[in-house]
């Protein structure tokens, strides 16, 4: 039985590996009944569910942490390099999801409890991860981005209908409708309306 009051972060300390390969290692080599973690994030950013959250972990034996924490592992060796952006984005979504269900649990490195290990690696950006998890900006900006995309597409359609732009398809797309494009479109429209060109 696990009663999570904290989150503990790990790295696999391997350059490669998948949920399946790490699960196999924990079961066949370590002789455990399941992968040791509750969650694992592969290098492509995919999230994999390990043990159930109310199930005792096998990721941090110090201070009874296996009975009082959720264990999250990111695949990679972060003594050598930082986790990639996809992994950090997935981790942030997962942390926010956990916060929604448990409240804002404290986030620790494995090293905090097991000082003889560097886990999750000396180059793991712990401060950034914690700050981002506690900010709501990501969610808001993601919603804003989709609004911007939709509004931008509508604006382009109506400009095309009025014959102000040709090839409206070329104007659309997530890359084109970035933050600066609507402003630029606005200037372009104002220029045309005012007859400057
Ligand atoms: Zn660890």
Automatic annotation (TrEMBL):
GO terms for molecular function: N-acetylmuramoyl-L-alanine amidase activity; zinc ion binding. This is N-acetylmuramoyl-L-alanine amidase. Belongs to the N-acetylmuramoyl-L-alanine amidase 2 family. Residues 1-121 form the N-acetylmuramoyl-L-alanine amidase domain. Gene3D superfamilies: Peptidoglycan recognition protein-like. GO terms for biological process: peptidoglycan catabolic process. InterPro entries: Amidase/PGRP_sf, Amidase_domain, PGRP, PGRP_domain_met/bac. Pfam families: Amidase_2. Residues 1-114 form the Peptidoglycan recognition protein family domain.
């Amino acid at each position: 039985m696990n009663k999570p009051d904290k989150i503990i972060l790990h790295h696999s300390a391997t350059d490669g590996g998948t949920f399946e390969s790490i699960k196999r290692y924990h079961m066949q080599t370590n002789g455990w009944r399941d992968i040791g973690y509750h969650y694992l994030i592969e290098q492509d950013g995919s999230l994999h569910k390990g043990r159930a959250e109310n199930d005792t972990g096998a990721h941090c034996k110090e201070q009874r942490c296996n009975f009082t924490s959720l264990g999250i592992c990111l695949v990679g060796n972060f003594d050598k390099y930082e986790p990639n952006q996809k992994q950090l984005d997935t981790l942030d979504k997962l942390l926010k999801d956990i916060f929604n269900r448990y409240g804002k649990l404290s986030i620790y490195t494995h090293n905090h409890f097991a000082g003889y290990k560097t886990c999750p690696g000396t180059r793991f950006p712990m401060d950034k991860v914690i700050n981002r998890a506690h900010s709501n900006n990501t969610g808001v900006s993601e919603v804003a981005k989709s609004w911007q995309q939709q509004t931008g597409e509508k604006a382009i359609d109506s400009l095309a209908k009025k014959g102000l732009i040709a090839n409206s398809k070329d104007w659309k797309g997530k890359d084109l409708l970035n933050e600066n494009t609507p402003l630029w479109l606005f200037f372009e429209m104002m220029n045309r309306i005012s007859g400057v060109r």
